[in-house]
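thread: overnight batch results

M.L. [08:02]
morning all. the overnight job finished for the chain we discussed friday. pasting input first so we're all looking at the same thing
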Amino acid sequence: MSGPIVLEALDLAALLCSRVCHDLISPVGAINNGLEVLEEAKDEETKTFALELIKKSARQGSAKLQFCRIAFGAAGSAGAQIDLGDAELVARGFLEDDKLTLAWGLPRLLLPKNRVKLLLNMLLIAGQAIPRGGTLTVAPEGSGDAMGFRVSAVGLNARVPQAIPPLLAGGSANETSVDAHAIQPFYTGLLARACGLAVSIAVDGDAIVVAAQ
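M.L. [08:03]
and the structure it wrote out:
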């Protein structure tokens, strides 16, 4: 691994904005496509298909915005706390589909916002470890304001993406900079260190475990 990577604040903000835009391009584009089909539709079946596409894409876009607002955004003033119940709702809306299930084992309580942001970003990384779907299981590490997290990913062909461990540690395996594709795991490492935690990803039996403690 190369030495630690240091990003200017403006570069970090720009890369995170690029990541959010990447997440939103698909549902917004689908809404636009649905509207075009609706305008040209001549029969009820096509109109119904277009409306369903628009509704589904709008739900997806809303879920992604709610998730990104907490995972990447300010989510309240400095020192704010976030309800883990709210985090569960946005995580389910963003992640769960016909391929992926979320098993949430955390109590409902308020935690400092950076710890909740860290948790949501850990879920994104764990999801990348099972690209063909499976189950993400979230459990606490410790308790109270000092709580850390353990996210286990189990699914077909589960694997640790090669680039992620060095990025979590603040570096990169082959590059001297971080691009928009790599910013999310790099940001996860920043969040963990800001919380006084160490974050890691490793194989544990049949699972890929992302842990912060």
